[in-house]
Amino acid sequence: MNKPTPLVDQFQRRITYLRLSVTDRCDLRCTYCMPERMTFLPRREVLSLEELHQMALGFIDRGITKLRLTGGEPLVRRDMLELVHALGRKLGDGLEELTMTTNGTRLADFADDLYAAGMRRINVSLDTLDRGMFETLSRRDSLPQVLEGLAAAKAAGLKVKINTVALKGINEDQLSGLIAWAHGEGFDLTLIEVMPLGEVEGDRIDHYLPLIAVQDTLERDWTLVPSDHRSGGPARYFDVAETGGRLGLITPLTNNFCAGCNRIRVTATGQLYACLGGEERVDLRAALRSDEPERRLSEALDTAMRIKPERHHFAIDERGQSPALARHMSMTGG
Ligand code: SAM
Ligand code: SF4
């Protein structure tokens, strides 16, 4: 049999990083991510454990070396650990890194198992250390569980990066304190701009906070030294001289990072989105549920390489309006 060809798109970008959403469900309801009464998908529409596994193997065959499991909240999926263990067996055999983005509420139960399966680094999303604000933002009073989960992750030996969405008039005056706390714990921290994805209640644009402005404010408290660290993602990094820790800034709306894009995303229903900010997609579930799953999957990946757009189309116009893309971040996993 011929060796499978690597995934290279029409702009000669080599795709090596897959973000795979394993569920659209979540135990939190972050206001910028989903409405309180979110309608979740019927289970039959979501890929089964076997389908997720088979699909991931197909990607690894085609040169995906980094796989991030996300959601929704990946740790609310019941058979999640089985999947992590199965994929962990590919580490060193095509796969170089298996990682996860989680809200941390269930980490206390899972941290040791994740490490045992071969995971070494995880991203944990946390926007505030104030319990009341956490509850307002996520509509659940779960900060204590998240902090417990973080302690468990650290004790298990997992390297943690905190992801914080910067929100104007909400947590903007806590960002400096979050840096001090995270670096004190030995965690890196990355700030993210809120993105126009999916309809949510209230006006997300009211809370859009350009990180360029945040950087200026942070520089009053911290010495930010530009770093040439790269994570294979869109973040720019700084070393914080006072803490010795690392700060990342992800600015999808103010900065164009598409030229170096190495990633694709697949939703829990097996829709491959070639770009987080675009509508171009390929239905991998149809391929997986066909008579010839292996061949159809590989063809679908070739199609994805043909349609991956050169750049994203996010925009917030001069009136502060954004033509929100119809899908939620909990579908494509951020
Ligand atoms: N539930 C997990 C979590 O929260 O880490 C994984 C999925 S969540 C959709 C992934 C990341 O997307 C989180 O860091 C979250 O803060 C971020 N996110 C969700 N909606 C967003 C939006 N509209 N703009 C920017 N980031 C968003
Ligand atoms: Fe859930 Fe993550 Fe969305 Fe918050 S950001 S509602 S934790 S999926």
How many separate helices? Answer: 10
Strand order of the largest sheet: 7-8-9-6-5-4-3-2-1-10-11-12
Net shape: globular
**Care to count the β-strands?**
12
Name the CATH class: Alpha Beta
Helix content: 25-40%
Overall residue-averaged pLDDT value: 90
Summarize the helix and strand pattern as letters: EHEHEHEHHEHEHEEEEEEHHH
Task: Tell me about this structure.
The chain has 334 residues and is α/β, with parallel strands linked by helices. It has a single domain, classed as TIM Barrel (Alpha-Beta Barrel), CATH 3.20.20.70. It is 30% helix and 18% strand. Strands 7-8-9-6-5-4-3-2-1-10-11-12 form a twelve-stranded mixed sheet. It starts with 16 loop residues before the first strand and ends with a helix. S-adenosylmethionine (SAM) binds at residues 26, 32-33, 70-71, 73, 101-103, 125, 163, 165, 192, 194-195, 197, 329-330, 333-334.
What's the gist of this structure?
With 334 residues, the protein is an alpha/beta fold.
List keywords for this structure.
alpha/beta, TIM Barrel, twelve-stranded mixed beta sheet, 10 helices, 12 strands, 18% strand, binds iron/sulfur cluster
Show the helix and strand layout.
Layout: E1 17-21, H1 49-61, E2 66-70, H2 80-88, E3 97-102, H3 107-116, E4 121-125, H4 131-138, H5 143-156, E5 159-166, H6 175-185, E6 188-193, H7 211-221, E7 224-227, E8 236-240, E9 246-250, E10 263-266, E11 271-273, E12 281-283, H8 284-288, H9 293-307, H10 329-332
Parallel strand pairs: 1-2, 1-10, 2-3, 3-4, 4-5, 5-6, 6-9
Antiparallel strand pairs: 7-8, 8-9, 10-11, 11-12
Helix pairs in contact: 1-2, 3-5
S-adenosylmethionine is lined by residues 26, 32-33, 70-71, 73, 101-103, 125, 163, 165, 192, 194-195, 197, 329-330, 333-334.
